[in-house]
Each structure stands twice: as C-alpha cells, then as structure tokens.
Amino acid sequence: MNNKSNTEEGTISTSVALFDSDRIRKGILNGKWYFSIIDIVQILTGSTVPKRYWSDLKIKINNLAAS
Q1: Where are the extended beta strands (E) located within 1-67?
Q2: CA–CA distance, 2 with 24 (Å, rounded to integer)
Q3: How buried is residue 42: exposed, middle or buried, by Cβ count under 10 Å (0-12/13-18/19+)?
Q4: Which residues contact 48 (CB under 8 A, 6 or more apart)?
Q5: pTM value?
Q6: Which pLDDT tens digits describe the chain residue by residue (67 residues)?
Q7: Among 17, 29, 34, 66, which is 20 to 30 Å from 8 by CA?
Q8: C-alpha–C-alpha distance, residues 18 and 24, integer Å
Q9: Cβ partners under 8 Å of residue 4, min gap 6
Q10: Any long-range contacts for 44-47 (C-beta under 8 Å, 24+ apart)?
C-alpha cells in the first residue's frame, strides 16, 4: 500500500515495510526515509503498549542527559 500527500516540506510517500512478518510504517520526504519508531519498539521489545514504552524511554533518556 502506497500513499502520497503534500506538505509544506514537500511530497511524502508512505508505505509499509515488513520485518519478519511484522509491519513497519515508513515514509520518504525529500529523499530521506523515515520509519515509525513505535512500530520498531513494538517489534524489538514485544511490548503490548509500545507508545507508553517509547514515552517512558524518552523520559529516562532526557533524565540521563540532564544529569
């Protein structure tokens, strides 16, 4: 499945990649690929709530950087 949409930055083309049989949303903007970190976190950790896992991880990273 491929979708295209226009933004102020340019045209974004999106599609889905497979990693083992898991889906990872991806898009290309101005020649750069972007992948869904939420999808990647879910695959790598097996988390049932990957948005929460990622949110908690960002907080931990920011706290470590501030130390």
Answers
A1: 3-7, 10-19, 22-29, 32-35
A2: 13
A3: buried
A4: none
A5: 0.67
A6: 556 666 666 666 777 777 778 888 988 888 889 999 999 999 999 999 999 999 999 999 999 999 8
A7: 17
A8: 6
A9: 11, 12, 13, 14
A10: none
Residue whose structure tokens are 């972007």:
34
Can you read off the two tokens belonging to residue 60? 């931990």
Ranges of each domain in the chain: 3-66
Residue partners of 47: CB distance under 8 A and separation at least 6:
41, 53
Rounded CA-CA distance 43/64 in Å is 25
Six-digit token string for 2 = 């491929």
DSSP class of 30: T
Kindly state the tokens that stand for 3. 């979708």
